[in-house]
Design a protein that fits this description.
Distance between the termini: 38 Å
Order of helices and strands: EEHEHEEEH
Radius of gyration: 16 Å
Strand content: 25-35%
Shape: globular
Number of domains: 1
């Protein structure tokens, strides 16, 4: 990428079968507009994985996150507003944009997250992958490996 406005797809899924053939599926960003739609996308991805002959997978998604202390009552109120879809995470002060990668097979699943830095004069940059921060992330896209069992 050379254009500062360049971007990568919102969500990509790679599935490898036992013959080492790889299927790639891009999920359009419009399907991530609401929580209900995100839930549907997660169900469809799991159904596609289950119906394929996949033995391994990688899911890469552009995400926004807030790394908050969940024991703080004020933070709980903020997260409740997000869950009620009154506000999107990326609209909140301190929100971070990142790429989330989930990969695995039927036996285990791993997650990694890398922050994205955006600049006015050059393309976005990807930070270092952080497995520890990602391992604490739970949500609708966690546990994809169960679809391969």
């Amino acid at each position: 990428m050379t254009d500062p406005d360049a971007d990568w797809p919102v969500c990509m899924l790679w599935m490898e079968n036992a013959e080492h053939q790889v299927d790639v599926m891009e999920v359009p960003g419009q399907l991530f507009a609401t929580g209900v739609m995100k839930d549907a996308v997660a169900r469809v991805i799991k159904m596609v994985m289950k119906s394929s002959d996949a033995v391994r997978y990688v899911l890469v998604m552009n995400v926004h996150g807030l790394f908050l202390d969940r024991t703080d009552e004020e933070n709980e109120e903020v997260m409740q507003r997000v869950q009620n879809e009154e506000v999107r995470i990326q609209q909140l002060p301190g929100a971070k944009e990142a790429l989330m990668m989930i990969w695995g097979d039927a036996e285990e699943e791993h997650q990694g997250i890398a922050l994205i830095s955006r600049h006015d004069d050059r393309p976005p940059e990807l930070g270092e992958w952080d497995d520890e921060k990602a391992e604490r992330v739970e949500g609708r896209f966690s546990g994809l490996n169960r679809a391969l069992r």
